């Protein structure tokens, strides 16, 4: 009796492990669009908190495909990113003077006087860094996407920002050219 139960168990185990090898692979239903996400290196002080991403949506179908909407989440608007990375010039100057004052005793007040001299330059550099961050943030502003058509072989690109280590997700809702039904294409984290 034990041998029969053992043989049945081995047979069931073997069959359940072999069945997936003969299963057919379901072909991808979306043969219309391809979407890709790539990270973009930031060159301003935004890079301390944010990562830039560029999305590309390409029509691989032979006829035009109508895009209804593109939904983004876990991303940041350009204005929010700029305001969170922006530093006040007065605070930067105060920090420079305070740092010089903290080393005043061992340097016989030379660092304090050096901090007073360097403070206006650090404030000016901070103002320039803020301008560069604003200019770069505007390049990554959220797109205002309305319905549009992608012609055969055409690519639509847009950029957005996200907090470091948090890639944004996107859902593209488009019309199936054959059935006129809405379809989704998603890029998740």
Q: Based on helices, strands and strand pairing, what is the structural class?
A: alpha+beta
Order of helices and strands: HEEEHHHEEEE
Strand content: 25-35%
- How do the strands of the widest beta sheet line up side by side? 4-3-6-7
Helix content: 25-40%
The number of distinct β-strands equals 7
Annotation field: number of helices: 4
Low-confidence stretches: none
**Radius of gyration, rounded?**
29 Å
Average pLDDT level: 86
Largest sheet: 4 strands, antiparallel
3D shape: flat
How far apart the termini lie comes to 53 Å
Short description:
With 189 residues, the protein is α+β, with helices and mostly antiparallel strands. It has helices at residues 2-22, 78-85, 89-102, 110-139, and strands at residues 33-40, 50-59, 65-73, 148-150, 155-163, 169-175, 182-187. The longest helix is centred in the middle third of the chain and has 30 residues, at 110-139.
Fold blueprint:
Blueprint: H1 2-22, E1 33-40, E2 50-59, E3 65-73, H2 78-85, H3 89-102, H4 110-139, E4 148-150, E5 155-163, E6 169-175, E7 182-187
Antiparallel strand pairs: 1-2, 2-5, 3-4, 3-6, 6-7
Helix pairs in contact: 2-4, 3-4
Written overview of the protein:
The protein has 189 residues and is an alpha+beta fold. The protein is 39% helix and 28% strand. It has 4 helices and 7 strands, in the order αβββαααββββ. The chain has helices at 2-22, 78-85, 89-102, 110-139; strands at 33-40, 50-59, 65-73, 148-150, 155-163, 169-175, 182-187. The strands form 2 sheets. Strands 4-3-6-7 form a 4-stranded antiparallel sheet, with no helix packed on it. Strands 1-2-5 form a 3-stranded antiparallel sheet, with no helix packed on it. It starts with a helix and ends with a strand. The mean pLDDT is 86.
